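Q: For a teaching session next week I want to show students how multiple molecules come together into a single three-dimensional assembly. I've collected the sequence lines for a complex. Could you give me the predicted structure tokens for the whole thing so I can convert them for display?
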Amino acid sequence: MTKATMQPTLHRRPLVKKILEGADDNLLVLAGLGSANWDITNAGDRPLNMPLWGAMGATVSMGLGLALAQPTKRVLVITGDGDMLMGMGSLATVAAQQPDNLAICVLDNEKFGETGNQATHTSPRNKGPIDSGAGTDLSLIARGCGIGDTGTVCDQGEVAQLVKDLRGKKGPVFRVVKVMVEKLDFVMPPQDGAYLKDRFREALLGRP
Amino acid sequence: MTDWRDDIFAVLQDHDIKQVYHVPDAGHSRLIEACQTSNSIHTLALTTEGEGIPLAAGAWLGGQRSVLLMQSSGVGNTINLMGLTKTLRFPFLTLITMRGDYGEFNSWQYPMGQGTPKVLEAMGVLLYSVDKAEEVKATVDAAARSAFNGGQAVAVLLRQKLIGIKTFGKK
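A: Of course. Below is the structure for the complete assembly, covering every listed component.
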């Protein structure tokens, strides 16, 4: 059994809290729609968080545009497997640019969480007519796109290194973290997109 | 008179455009090459035009202006994400070379070419259209003002009459 096919043991909420611990003005965070949005908000809403409520498949692209515009800041994209699957081409575009300040963390629970936990393509095959996926390995896809620094994290023992890599290692860094399927409270940030954008720019640039 | 494609490059520089997104396109190829060789512009080739809108949003979050260059055949790939320009209310500029338009020989280009103005309008994108070389500069400049000063999502349709069928496949 390869480690990616074992039952995940990592809880996403404390993990994201750890990843964002001590976030300062040098850390710009984008989160994909759904669970990743609630996760970063649970860790503490802040102006330099841009949590998405829609735009599925767009999170990595938005992170890339931001990373190129702000080369001295760390840009961290935290999203889910469903969002990443919808925007896989964006990984090739990231690879073409090689932004050294961009890190991407995919919290992979192998489910479409917001619609009732249907299997995504990262779920294993042969799990019956309803729960089967394709065993898609997003880390391998990122590597195949040309991102050199990729990996999959499954164990608590790897978390400290994961946090270090996401927060400071020369990018582009791409990590898949296999996380448990959990029923968690919605922890919601403000919803108004224009407000989220304006408060982000105000905090970063001093003007909306 | 200068070439209209060089005029566009000059306007992009005047408006301090720092990121240019494109899917390779014969009509835009001369402009794309000018951007690629510029030291002040990040030029990104995309896998699909749909990447262009969130890229533009990210650039704007970081304080930079951008433009998306595409063909009308790629407009359909952007429509869902075009909604971001409304939800985030950020300035957005796209320059579209038209196919399926004036004298098009390829029937496969007509559906999206003819649908382009309608679907963009449906998403609330402001449309400018130009079919005369001498009007390109002023039109793109006005579009950039509407976008970056007026805060609008704006598309300039570079009509097939302007581009000419003969330029396809050549620089």
